[in-house]
Amino acid sequence: MTHRRPALVVAGAVVVAALAACSADPVLLDGDDFPGVEETTQNTRSGNVPGPTWCDGMAADTVAAPSSPGTVLDLGDRGTAGAVIIDRSADGLGSDQVLAQLQGQADACADSSVAEQGSVIEPLTGLGDGAIGWTTRRVDGEWGEYVLVPLDEWRLLAVGFSTTQDAAPVDLDDLVDRATAGAEQFPPAEG
């Protein structure tokens, strides 16, 4: 006659559940942390982050490696938000170089004929240490905010949102804080 010990079965189930939770893939942003998220796409590896709207030259996907982890949050009619880690250490490009490249692209957009036709790009103020960012607005009303945060000497975090609504779909400071915390799950590449 076999006797099962319920306490051992329950303890074993708890250990299995804990191990499964620990083995979950890391993510930059959790859609459950933001109200109204209709769909969350994790680790897209595309490098795309909403925010630059019309200034494609400063978009993260122009400099992010194809293997860059990212998250995109679909907020339905309210817009999209997301984050991606930009790591160009394999190419020998430090975060300060990539930051300068994207700043140059933003400056070029500000001086472009698109800006002369009514599209707007303005620097954001009051950002964290070393971070730079912009508000962009297209003539059709789509607007966004886009921030680049140095994580270390090799990596940047690009965070942003875009919307056609009057109000921001997410709080930018909260988005940046949560994405920065999420980035801690992704160690720098071995270079």
What does this structure look like?
It is a single chain. This protein has 191 residues and is α+β, with helices and mostly antiparallel strands. The protein has a single domain (27-183), classed as Protein Transport Mog1p, Chain A (3-Layer(aba) Sandwich). Helices cover 26% and strands 23% of the residues. It contains four helices and seven strands; from the N terminus they run αβββααββββα. The chain has helices at residues 6-22, 95-110, 113-116, 172-183, and strands at 39-42, 70-74, 80-87, 120-123, 132-137, 143-150, 155-163. It has a seven-stranded antiparallel β-sheet, sandwiched between helices. A hairpin with a 4-residue loop joins β6 (143-150) and β7 (155-163). The longest helix has 17 residues, at 6-22. It is globular and about 45 Å long. The relative contact order is 0.18. The model is unreliable at 1-23 (pLDDT under 50).
- Which CATH architecture? 3-Layer(aba) Sandwich
Order of helices and strands: HEEEHHEEEEH
CATH topology assignment:
Protein Transport Mog1p, Chain A
Instruction: Please describe the biggest sheet, giving its number of strands, its sense, and whether it closes into a barrel.
Output: 7 strands, antiparallel
Secondary-structure-derived class:
alpha+beta
Count of β-strands:
7
What number of structural domains do the residues give?
1
